[in-house]
Specification:
With 249 residues, the chain is α/β, with parallel strands linked by helices. Helix content is 35%, strand content 27%. The chain is globular, with a radius of gyration of 18 Å.
C-alpha cells in the first residue's frame, strides 16, 4: 500500500472517531463473549501471589477492564491506551469506579513506533481487541503485532482479535467504493473495505483478515500460537481470536 493511501485511511478513521466517539461508545457497552476465555486463560497462567498485569491496547471506553473486574477474583493491574481522548476519558471514569489495585489510562497512537508506552515490558496479558481491522497495510499490522508481543512477559499472553466482517451480508451491504474518499479503485489491498456508518454517507476503513493472512502474520511475528478460536456475535463467529506467547530463546 502506498504511504499516501495509508495516510488517507488513517485520517479517515481519526476524523470518524473524533466526531463519533460518544455515539460509538453507546454501541459498545457490553463485553464480548470471547473475552471470558481470554481472561480465564491469562488468570490461570499468572504467577502465584502476583497481580495479573494487563496492557489493553486500543482500550476504547474501558469495557474490557469492566469485564476483568467482573470476572477476576485475584489482584490485577491495568494500563489502557487509546488514540481517542474522549474514549480515554470515559475509560478513566469507569476504572475509578471499579478501582483495581493499580491502573493507568492514556492517550497514545498505537502506530507510532516511538510512543513511550512501547518501552514498557513484562505484562502478563496484552490485548489488541477491535484494533487490527483499522490498521491499513499488511506491513503495519505485522509491525503492531511485533511491538505488542515485545511487551509480553515470558509465559504471558498476547490476545488479538480479527473482525470477520466478510462473514456478514449485512455489513458487506454497507461497503462503499474507494472513490467516495478520493481513492482509486485499486488503491486498497485485498480484504480492505470502506464501511458506511449509520444511515449517512460517512465511512470508516476496515480490513478483513482471512485465516491464511492471520497464520502468516503469526508465523513471521516472532510469537508462537497458543490457541485460536472463534467467538462473539449471534453465531459466535464475528471475531477470530489468537492467543500468542513469546517464543522461547
Amino acid at each position: 500500500m502506498k504511504p499516501e493511501t495509508r495516510d488517507v485511511l488513517l485520517d479517515l478513521n481519526r476524523r470518524f472517531y473524533a466526531a463519533r466517539a460518544t455515539e460509538f461508545s453507546r454501541t459498545r457497552q457490553q463485553p464480548w463473549q470471547g473475552w471470558r476465555r481470554v481472561i480465564e486463560r491469562a488468570a490461570a497462567g499468572a504467577a502465584d501471589g502476583e497481580p495479573l498485569s494487563i496492557l489493553d491496547l486500543g482500550c476504547g471506553n474501558g469495557r474490557f477492564a469492566v469485564a476483568c473486574a467482573r470476572q477476576m477474583s485475584a489482584p490485577w493491574s491495568y494500563v489502557g491506551v487509546d488514540e481517542s481522548p474522549q474514549l480515554v476519558a470515559e475509560a478513566r471514569e469507569r476504572l475509578e469506579e471499579i478501582a483495581p489495585a493499580a491502573f493507568e489510562v492514556e492517550v497514545g497512537d498505537l502506530l507510532a513506533a516511538a510512543a513511550p508506552f512501547w518501552s514498557r515490558r513484562g505484562f502478563g496479558l496484552v490485548t489488541l481487541f477491535g484494533v487490527m481491522h483499522h490498521v491499513p497495510s499488511a506491513e503495519r499490522r505485522l509491525e503492531l503485532l511485533r511491538r505488542a508481543g515485545a511487551c509480553v512477559a515470558p509465559g504471558g499472553l498476547l490476545a488479538v482479535s480479527f473482525w470477520q466482517l466478510e462473514t456478514s451480508d449485512r455489513l458487506m451491504a454497507r461497503t462503499v467504493e474507494p472513490s467516495t474518499v478520493g481513492l482509486a479503485a485499486d488503491a486498497l489491498e485485498a480484504g480492505d473495505y470502506l464501511l458506511r456508518w449509520g444511515d449517512g454517507d460517512e465511512a470508516r476503513y476496515c480490513h478483513h483478515s482471512d485465516l491464511e493472512e492471520m497464520a502468516e502474520m503469526v508465523e513471521t511475528s516472532g510469537l508462537q500460537a497458543v490457541e485460536s478460536f472463534r467467538a462473539d456475535g449471534r453465531e459466535d463467529a464475528s471475531n477470530v481470536y489468537w492467543l500468542l506467547s513469546p517464543r522461547a530463546a
